[in-house]
Amino acid sequence: MAPMETREAPEQRLWVHGTESEAVARPLTPRAVHRAALDSGGLPFAIPPVVFIAIPITFAWLNAPGAGAAVVTALMLVYGLAFVYCTGIALYPQKVRLAWFALCTLLLLGLIPVLGPDVLYMVMFQAMTHVLLLPWRWAGPTMVAVCLSVFVLALVLGIYVAAGLAGMGMLMSWGIGYGIRQQLLQEQLEAAQHRNAVLAVAAERERIGRDLHDLVGHSLTSLTISAQLARRLLDTDPEAAREQLTLIETTVRQALADVRATASGMQHVRAATEIASARTVLSTVGIQAEVPTALPPLHDDLAELFGYVIREGVTNIVRHSRATRAVIHVDESSVTVRDNGIGIPEGADRTGLRGLEARVALAGGRLEVRSDETGTRLHAAVGPAAPSPRSPGSPGSPA
């Protein structure tokens, strides 16, 4: 089959938009920061609250007009600009976000000497920078602590507007942070669902590959044997050759139906049908077959799994073993296929056995393959460990 192509799952998201690799590659320039703010979708919502910086600016000019008020105005405008573009900085790596948060905090601390208690009016902005720039595990506790501290201090100082802004800022910031957190979780869920879909496609392709190998390999082996036998019998026994040609036609039709069913996920393999097929195939090549005349009750999944084990074992016997005798044993929890041939040749393709091992493991069982010059033994068990059956006169010792 052609190499499987899969799309990689999306990378871990940093914020509402953008991945870690995009954040690292984004240049830290005014144009790039502005573009990031637009990409985040938060820029239109960050601009309106900036009007509240007019409150401390107004108090500065009312209390002490002059150079001090001009400094306050300049610092507040810089802070307002830094606050607006927190939405863009949120798409950068954590170290950039922490540096921007430190810048905003230092600007506020720098305003204390010139604004005094009026700096408490800025609590709403500072609360929002917490949830926009800090990881949520830090932002939530620190934002609540800052808002509560300012709320109490404003009440003590009698600055009731600042106390109201502290309460409003805490509620708004919590809502913004919660929304960001939910968006992150939603994107992580979508990424996980995408990865699961990719893995499901890969698993289905692997299943189809295993099934096609088992079906086509078994059928082609039977066709090869029947064709060789028909060629040898064509002159000496035309009637027997005609029977082999009829068998070839039946096998081809069945193989075509099996391939179509496998491609549509409707292929059903059963231990009973594989034992009947094994008896015919082995007798055709002159191998004495000792197979069960009746099977124990098996669940459909177990009957299908054992059917694949029997099919692979018989196919290998016909292809490689040069055996004269083969035994198939089935009980409630295990199946064994063994022969008295020369074993699996060194360097032989074991694709079928590897696929079978994966199939058995997926069912919660284990597959044992023993092969040497005395023969090959294929044993699959599901559930509690099952002893290896050895019927009297079984061919060869377990390999």
TrEMBL record:
Biased segments, Pro residues type:
386-399
| Residues annotated as transmembrane | 41-62, 68-91, 98-123, 143-163
UniProt-listed Pfam families: HATPase_c, HisKA_3
Lineage top rank: taxon = Bacteria
GO MF annotations, alphabetized: phosphorelay sensor kinase activity; protein dimerization activity
Q: Which UniProt keywords apply?
A: Kinase, Membrane, Transferase, Transmembrane, Transmembrane helix, Two-component regulatory system
What range(s) does the Histidine kinase/HSP90-like ATPase domain occupy?
307-379
What region holds the Signal transduction histidine kinase subgroup 3 dimerisation and phosphoacceptor domain?
204-268
Instruction: Name the coiled-coil region(s).
Output: none
Looking at the UniProt record for this protein, which Gene Ontology cellular component terms does it annotate, in alphabetical order? Answer: membrane
The UniProt annotation puts the region (Disordered) at 372-399
Identify the stretch annotated as signal peptide in this record: none
- Put simply, this protein is called Signal transduction histidine kinase
- Species per Swiss-Prot/TrEMBL record: Brachybacterium faecium (strain ATCC 43885 / DSM 4810 / JCM 11609 / LMG 19847 / NBRC 14762 / NCIMB 9860 / 6-10)
Upper lineage is: Bacteria, Bacillati, Actinomycetota, Actinomycetes, Micrococcales
